[in-house]
Amino acid sequence: MERNFGAEIDELKKELQYIKELLKKDEDNKNDREKIGHVEKMADVHPDSNINAILNRLENSCGKSGDSGRITYLGVFASGGRQSTWIKNGVHTDDLLTLIENRTAEKVLKCIGNNDRLNILLAILRKPMTVAQIVEKCGFNSTGQAYHHIKPLLAADLIAEDSQNKERGYYIIQPHRVQGIIMLLAGICDMTDNQYTEGNWED
């Protein structure tokens, strides 16, 4: 079958014109977007209107104040017979950035940035455990090896002995620290999401 190059070229021209119109429409939409201070308002970025309303308030607040950003986060974590529920609204990202400048982020990541300590946190996030159970669950060779990693977690007030348990010697994640651990994991999930790009996280 003989190809009709003229017709194919005409079809390509139509497609190109369609793409140009889409790009122009997108540019027009950008120009029509409302701005509050330095913040460009983003309309209906989520299918839930309640979430869009929260984002709208954050944009307004950030734009009026001139801050670099505002975030809101909330969640619930229920495991091992315990529950943590949290809401942080309108957190200033400028305050978060100072955690790098004053080396707080470095200290926290250094304290928990070890696979053995992360496994301890994971184990007792799921349920309160004794040192003997931690040794077995995390594959330590001795209680001394477990205590070597438990000690800095206790000092950082990430974990504590469970005062509600009738039997002594059970460790839990401090209730007010649960959300921090879960949100840190959420941030790691965002950083390693390869939807748009892939990174090499090897040393």
If you had to describe this structure to a student in words, what would you say it looks like?
- The structure is a single chain.
- With 203 residues, the protein is an alpha+beta fold.
- The protein folds into 2 domains: 5-32; 74-192, Orthogonal Bundle (Arc Repressor Mutant, subunit A), CATH 1.10.10.10.
- It contains 8 helices and 6 strands.
- The chain has helices at residues 5-32, 49-65, 93-101, 104-112, 115-126, 131-138, 143-155, 175-192; strands at residues 35-36, 39-40, 70-79, 82-92, 159-161, 171-173.
- Strands 1-2 form a two-stranded antiparallel sheet.
- The mean pLDDT is 90.
Nutshell version of this structure?
Helix content is 56%, strand content 15%.
